[in-house]
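Per reviewer request, we include the raw input and output of the structure prediction for the construct analysed in the revised manuscript.
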Amino acid sequence: MQRQIFTEEHEAFRETVRTFLTKEVLPHYEQWEKDGIASREAWLAAGRQGLLGLAVPEEYGGGGNTDFRYSAVLAEEFTRAGTPGLALGLHNDIIGPYLTGLATDEQKRRWLPGFCSGETITAIAMTEPGAGSDLQGIRTTAEDKGDHWLLNGSKTFISNGILADLVVVVARTTPEGGAKGLSLIVVERGAEGFERGRNLDKIGQKSQDTAELFFNDVRVPKENLLGERDGAFIHLMTNLAQERMGIAVAGIAAAEHLLEITTKYVKEREAFGRPLSKLQHIRFEIAEMATECAVTRTFIDRCIVDHSDGTLDAVHASMAKWWATELQKRAADRCLQLHGGYGYMAEFPVARAFTDGRIQTIYGGTTEIMKEIIGRSLLA
């Protein structure tokens, strides 16, 4: 079906993204995978190309455009290229809204120009060894010392954790406040007592640095409080819909791309003297995946438009996230199977898509958490 949500301007931006991937990412990606980290030069190149800070006001060096469809284009093209390691979506769509929506004018002047140029790479540190999606389980503390915050604790599974120059840390500022006693504290590179642990060895997305972070009596200036004191819970809930939509967009784009390359493969690959595509079972597999992708694409595109208009709610974002990522997981498994032994070879795109995509049903809120959100809304 012909997609109807993009204009000529969006498609021109798509060509810009493809050119960037061809020149600045794909020639270096294998090396990044071996190194376990993308290069800072790629971030600077993304800044020069206008791919960072799409929604940041122009006065700070951003694109000044809050139309989420541009972010969707970026996510789709990076997914189809098989290059999730350069985490521009995390930077733009997850952390960006905290800085543009919560930062003071002074903070914006201090942080946003580097955010848009690629000189300041960002991360958000929420997950802890003993607390995943449960905000009430967060133990990292920020104690008010009058002229500064004293930050203590640890975080894990932090994307961009090694490269990050600016880390938005979710910390407890009111011990007895439960999930409502949390605040967002911004820690900058070089702060005394701020240490990075190992670059975690994941099964996929090798070039996307994911780290442990440690805060040992880190003195953070009072002016690095982002948003309201004890307001992190509301701040986090407000921005989760966009995070989940970014993941959902990548999910359906991955499933469609897997279907595309597998359809081509079964037409060319022969078994028992004829192409695999001549076997009824293969045709049924392709037919099922094509139908699932078409139905899912229709819903996701509607969600993209609604989010661009500011009307998408948390429940439908959760529906989009769990459905699209579970489809991606199923498609990766089935497409790998249809590739046979070649599908298990690391140099085949389907193999990397299988391992790179497995995290999709976990981060941003697991499938189980998404279903809980949806169920509560219907049965409250």
